[in-house]
Amino acid sequence: MIAEKKYLQPVTIDEALAMTNIAENDFRFIAGGTDVMVNRFQGNETSSCLIDLTGINELKQIKKVGDYLSIGSLVCLSELKNSPEIKNEFPVLIEAANAVASPTIRRSATIGGNILCENRCIFYNQSEWWRNAIGFCLKCEGNICIATGSKKNCYSEFVSDTAPALISMDALIEIIDIDGEQKIKLEDIYTGTGVHPRNLNKTAIIKSILLPLHQNFVSVFNKLRQRESMDFTSLTTVVSANKNGKIKIVLGGVDPKPVVIEGTNKSNTEELIIQAIKKARAIDNEMLSRNYRREMIGVFLKRSFEKLII
User: Fold this and answer.
1) Cα 104 from Cα 96, distance rounded (Å)
2) For residue range 269-305, what is the model confidence (pLDDT) as tens digits?
3) CA separation, residue 17 to residues 27, 118, 201, 276, 296 (Å)
């Protein structure tokens, strides 16, 4: 019987949503699996049922919808460079996608999966026996943040590279779940709480990412990491300016959610940089120090504004 299956493969969104009832809430959606399967191997993801969305062709399309470019959530990161619209209007998204992991992983990893990748911390992303030896943290049913000693707040880091690029260009997302459909700003799905970093229902499926067309975005992307070939970000910065002079700064890797600062081409860039540094709640929970990463925020943003000629 289907209720006994541990691995389900829907071919439509409706079928996928119906399967969430069959799995009795003990399930996890999976696409490329480059994040979920690693967390399962470490014992950080323990759902008894996986619902594989890769058979839903509706989620693999890139097309124009009104004044937006719609990018299906199952489009692989390696495929973004093949879209003429993305090349012409949103090239920073290709740059951000190419900064994720390695070419092999990018052929499996999806854009939807990247914007939903789990927050990371050096004390959390370890094997189960390692975590048991040192003590479980807030993010894995412990009672203290090992990095800070806090008994209330988890500061595991938001590490998506594509999401900062998308947010800097005012991306929306289309979400469907058992309660219906809605469109919201991408940055609004992130809570800033490391234990529960997103405010999406468990049954929610991201149908597509919507980018506004004809805004003439000019963007600068930077990423700090130990090994340029494949590491998760220690700091991602994206600065975008549109045809109306709006400026949007987005940081990743230095807070449990994206750090977003907005201004205009009339704004004092030094003040915008100070705001970004102050808003970032980086702590010492990864290989590069908090102080170094905060210093690099200023370095990256100054370089970005020089390239934008603001």
Assistant:
1) 16
2) 999 999 999 999 999 999 999 999 999 999 999 999 9
3) 11, 22, 12, 39, 43
pLDDT, residue 5, reads 60
Extents of the domains making up the chain: 2-120+155-308
Task: Please count the CA atoms within 13 angstroms of the CA of 302 that sit on its side-chain side.
Answer: 8
**pTM score of the predicted model:** 0.96
Beta partners for residue 141, in sequence order: none
Q: At residue 1, does pLDDT exceed 50?
A: no
For CA atoms 191, 131, 202, 35, give the dihedral sign.
Answer: positive
Q: What is the pLDDT of residue 310?
A: 55
Strand segments, DSSP code E, in the chain are 7-8, 27-30, 49-52, 62-65, 68-72, 172-177, 180-185, 205-212, 218-224, 235-241, 246-252, 259-264
Phi, psi at residue 242, to the nearest 5°?
Answer: -105, -175
CATH number for the domain whose boundaries are 2-120+155-308 = 3.30.465.10
Angstrom distance (rounded) from CA 280 to CA 293: 10
